[in-house]
Amino acid sequence: MRLLHTSDWHLGRSLHRADLRDAQAGFIDHLVDTVRAEHVDVVLVAGDVYDRAVPPLDAVQLCEDAFVRIRAAGARVVVISGNHDSARRLGFGSALLDQSGVFLRTAVAGCAEPIVLDGVALFAIPYLEPEAVRGELGDARGHVGVLTEALARVRAVAPPVSVVLAHAWVAGGQASESERDLTVGGVSAVPVSLFDGFTYSALGHLHGPQVLTESLRYSGSPLAYSFSEAAHTKGSWLLTVADGGLGGVEFVEAPVPRRLSTLRGELSTLLTDPALAAQEQHWLSVVLTDTARPDAAMDRLSARFPHVLVLTHEPAGVSRSEQSYAARVSGRSDREIAGAFVAHVRGTPSSPAEQALLGEAFEAVRLSGASA
After folding, report:
1. Is the dihedral of CA 133, 136, 140, 144 positive or negative?
2. Would you give the distance in Å from CA 309 to the centre of its chain?
3. Under a CB-based contact definition with an 8 Å cutoff, are residues 169 and 188 in contact?
4. Whether 40 contacts 34, CB under 8 Å
5. 3-state secondary structure (DSSP) of residue 140
6. How far apart are CA 361 and CA 112, in angstroms?
7. Can you tell me the distance from the alpha carbon of 286 to that of 178, in angstroms, rounded to the nearest whole number?
8. How many CB atoms lie within 10 A of CB 68?
9. CB neighbours of residue 131 within 10 Å
10. What is the residue-wise DSSP string for 209-267?
């Protein structure tokens, strides 16, 4: 059996103000072409099909088109829900879709029920929000606890050759700026050892393609969804599974609709430097270092670089305390920002009890958004 491991499509997402619908449609075209050219039997989608719980209608249409076209190209599809998806919405009609060769798995109850295709057992474990599945997996708590219990149930029934899909942050995986935190102030990463013994584990959540072990991999997102992903090579893992276990695994690069770059310097230099010609058609994040903020900087930059998405001003020689609020909080978590605010207003750092209270407040906000 030949399988194509993908994840984190995030249909409906934009890159700052750039519309990615055409780029996402281009990835689907590439996926269908790969299924045909490589004689793929099963396409795996390891969560975050959509970018939000209630996706825009054109994203839903693109997803439907993708599934229909993949099936027409000869492959079946196995999909799990991710932390960005609404499990109930994505899983609607799953029992009927099974008959068409599209297998949607979004509920805890189906974790240990294999999907057997061409003699290979596939176990699809959707993203497990600990609070949302409390009681369904015994008394398991936290991300490590619920995934440990789910995989124990799978392991109890799994045959020697078995493939697992999961949406989680596994220790050793490298995050970028565009993944949504799975917890605020808690432990979200789970150990690699949880996946020991399976023929292959197809992971979703982290956006960079990564090899944690030969049989444990992230495919990453098909497109760059933040400037922190500019250096990623996007794509999918093509693998062969047979009676003897895992065969070859190779990376299939995805098309790049437009490259991402970050430019830094004074405006006059950026506008005249011939060495920057290659970046003129890139999506750009620009940091101006002029002592004073230049007039009409965006308009002047856009005349040469028509795809500037982010423009910030960080004057050379200015300390962090003198920078803008956006610059000072860049790269800091919500909890760190709130703690710094308390210290600024009161003159003393927040106590451990106050830090815990802030963590609980942000976790409650995150959970309310995830359940929408």
Report:
1. negative
2. 21
3. yes
4. yes
5. coil
6. 34
7. 18
8. 14
9. 13
10. -EEEETTEEE---SS--SGGGTT---EEEEEEEETTEEEEEEEEEPP-SS-EEEEEE-H
With CA atoms as reference, report the closest residue to 194 among 140, 239, 138, 244. 140
What mean pLDDT, rounded, does the chain reach? 91
**Beta-carbon contacts of residue 84 (< 8 Å; ≥ 6 apart):** 10, 47, 48, 50, 51, 52, 53, 180
Are the beta carbons of 361 and 337 closer than 8 angstroms?
A: no
Separation CA 17–CA 334 (nearest Å)? 23
pLDDT in tens, 161-191: 999 999 999 998 888 777 766 653 344 789 9
**Alpha-carbon dihedral 277, 279, 281, 285, rounded to 10 degrees:** -140
Tokens 């799953």 — which residue?
Answer: 94
Residue 178 to residue 227: CA distance in whole angstroms? 9
Residues of the chain below pLDDT 50: 184-187
| Radius of gyration for the alpha carbons in the chain, expressed in angstroms and rounded | 23
Q: Coil, strand or helix: which one is 337? A: helix
By the 8 A CB rule, do 300 and 267 touch? Answer: yes
Give the closest residue to 242 by CA, choosing from 43, 3, 5.
3
3-state secondary structure of 190: strand
Q: Are 329 and 337 in contact (CB under 8 A)?
A: yes
Read off the DSSP letter of residue 159: -
Find the Cα–Cα–Cα–Cα dihedral 59, 64, 69, 74, rounded to 10°: 130
| Residues 6+ positions from 251 with CB-CB distance below 8 Å | 209, 233, 235, 236, 237, 238
Tokens of 159: 């045959």
26, burial (CB in 10 Å: exposed 0-12, middle 13-18, buried 19+): middle
For 230-286, the pLDDT digits (tens) are 999 999 999 999 988 999 999 999 999 999 999 999 999 999 999 999 999 999 999
For 145, other C-beta atoms within 10 Å of its C-beta total 16
**Domains present along the chain, CATH in parentheses:** 2-253 (3.60.21.10), 260-370 (no CATH)
Quick one: tokens of 3? 């399988």
For residues 301 and 8, give the distance between their C-alpha atoms in angstroms, rounded to a whole number.
Answer: 32
In three-state secondary structure terms, 291 is coil
